[in-house]
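Troubleshooting entry. Yesterday's outputs looked truncated, so today I'm pasting the complete records for two proteins to confirm everything comes through intact. If either block looks cut off, that's the bug. Protein one:
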Amino acid sequence: MAWDSQDPGRLSYQEVLKSLSQMSEVDMRRAERIADFLGHRLPGMRGEDLLQEVYTQFLSGDRRFPRDVPALVVLKTAMRSEASNVRKAGRASPVDPRYGIELVVTPDRRTPEVEILAREELETLLASCSSDPDVALVVMAWIDGLKGEAARVSTGLSEMVFDAARKRATRKLAGFERAREGS
């Protein structure tokens, strides 16, 4: 989402920081106890992680901090929402959270042949977009790992033009993927 200075019902970054830092010691303890309660039995998360995640979302602008609402109430509501999101993601996961899973990091196995094939596929994709420069800009933004508003801003396209180019790029990539799987 990011910071929206046009929203009068939302605190700015400085106001959020001020509101959180001015919480009383008692309210901070209450927030920690609420986080421990809500974070109990969350897959891969403890109460302090939940509280930290909500702080991060508020300070990054990803979560709205409304005006004229006490900070403890805002934190409690946000933590309840985030805990629900984590539980939903856990239910959607194919891994049973009761079992500890260690991730094994394997060394990068990209061989020169794989690198050449990937480069050729990328060149083919960009060549297929050369007739539509807006689509090429969108695809290049995606290649750079940009999504959503960040991708639109990096292309310099208006919202309407970007949305149309994004739809054309999605169709082009779907056709490219089907052709790739067919070979």
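Protein two, checking that the full record survives here as well:
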Amino acid sequence: MSLVYIGCGSDFEPVIRLPEVKKFYYIDSQPRSEYGWLEYGTRMFTRKNYKCEFRKGLPKEFLKINIDDTYPEIYHDVLNDRTIFHYYDLPFPWTSKIYLYHVSKKDMELLKFQISQATHLAICGHDPHAEILEMLPPKFTLVTNDNTVYPTNEKEVEQGNDGYPTVSAEFFLHPVIQRRITEVKYLTKGTTKTFKNYTEFMLNKGK
């Protein structure tokens, strides 16, 4: 099993709570920018300490196994054979400006392939661009938490800066996409609740 987490920050709850998942693709635009490729003309949205915070927050069993300058960073738990691939500085999936970053075309195509094989998508707080849904397999498990906003009507649907909807907006607007979710893992108050589909999750997550 593998999990994709765009806008991961230094949130390792999915790693801790889902021991059955063996590979984690952690992706964030930090430290270059907190908001994808947008910087609003200033450096105020950079997070210079991000990589240090990420390493500090790692579960202790994960050790870095590649050379410092090798991208992405790879952390491995030998005892349980689990791996975290950390793609930092990457405004994904908004890759139209990829020439600004240090990710090669080959590495980007490999990442897209890995996402196409993923079994889990994490949406915890940050809501990625809806383009990610085109890369995921037809069926997947949604991993989420109680810090995430779930729109209940069209007025609450968040639109991206380029006019495209977010993943959560697509879930709300399109039942066909909702049916792609075969299971929901809800990380809340120190526990993990499991729901058999998105509809059941939305009806019962507050109970």
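Both blocks look complete. Sanity check on protein two: Residues 61 and 77 are 5 Å apart (CA to CA).
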